[in-house]
Amino acid sequence: MQIFITGSNRGLGLGFVRHYLRQGHDVWACYRSDPGGLAAIESPKLHRLRWDVGTDDGPAGALPENVDLLINNAGIYGPDKDGQSLGKVTAQAMMEVFNIDCIGPLRVVQRLLGRFSGGAVIANISSKMGSSADNSSGGT
Ligand SMILES: NC(=O)c1ccc[n+]([C@@H]2O[C@H](COP(=O)([O-])OP(=O)(O)OC[C@H]3O[C@@H](n4cnc5c(N)ncnc54)[C@H](OP(=O)(O)O)[C@@H]3O)[C@@H](O)[C@H]2O)c1
């Protein structure tokens, strides 16, 4: 499979990259600015691609012909929990979160349109922070 993962220089994204490389897949691993943990991986199946999903600039490099699995993993938490309390959160902070976490995946899907294989899967990594059903862990 050809697998495309955003925000994969560290954290869960880097874990996904390692996992799918171990399984023998081709992985397009995107990073915002610092390749981080991707720099240490030596594999002909790894394709590093710089892409800040918070801008309209698009990826800096060649895209795969076909994508079988896109994992929209890049995301930010925003200000710390206290900074996201009702009394302190700012419009600017919320706009940054929405820009990266909500509009970012839209940018990525739009840019990859025409490259998805039949039966391709798009996985959007969300969070309890984005849940409208979970009212037990509030405060933000
Ligand atoms: N870990 C958890 O417990 C948890 C819980 C709920 C949801 N999630 C979600 O799971 C995903 C991964 O979480 P994580 O814990 O691995 O987070 P993380 O360690 O903070 O990593 C976030 C990744 O997203 C990248 N990123 C942030 N803004 C970006 C942008 N504008 N363009 C491109 N890449 C960007 C970061 O790149 P930089 O290094 O350049 O910042 C980093 O690679 C996120 O979407 C997060 O919301 C995680």
Characterization of the model:
This protein has one domain (2-129): NAD(P)-binding Rossmann-like Domain (Rossmann fold, 3-Layer(aba) Sandwich). Helix content is 24%, strand content 21%. The protein has helices spanning 11-22, 91-112, and strands at residues 2-5, 26-31, 46-50, 67-72, 116-124. A 5-stranded parallel beta sheet has the order 3-2-1-4-5, sandwiched between helices. The model has no long low-confidence stretch (mean pLDDT 95). The structure holds NADP nicotinamide-adenine-dinucleotide phosphate. Residues 6-7, 9-13, 32-34, 36, 52-54, 73-76, 100, 125, 127 line the site of NADP nicotinamide-adenine-dinucleotide phosphate. Residues 6-7, 9-13, 32-34, 36, 52-54, 73-76, 100, 125, 127 line the site of NADP nicotinamide-adenine-dinucleotide phosphate (NAP).
How would you describe this structure in keywords?
binds NADP nicotinamide-adenine-dinucleotide phosphate, 2 helices, 5-stranded parallel sheet, elongated, 5 strands, Rossmann fold, alpha/beta, 140 residues, 21% strand
Summarize the structure.
This protein has 140 residues and is α/β, with parallel strands linked by helices.
Number of strands: 5
The helix content is 10-25%
**Nearest-integer average pLDDT:** 95
Q: What CATH first level would be assigned?
A: Alpha Beta
The low-pLDDT segments are: none
The span between the termini is 39 Å
Present as ligands are:
NADP nicotinamide-adenine-dinucleotide phosphate
Rg is: 16 Å
State the strand order across the main sheet.
3-2-1-4-5
Q: Please identify which CATH superfamily we are dealing with.
A: NAD(P)-binding Rossmann-like Domain
- The coarse silhouette is elongated
| Shape-level CATH architecture | 3-Layer(aba) Sandwich
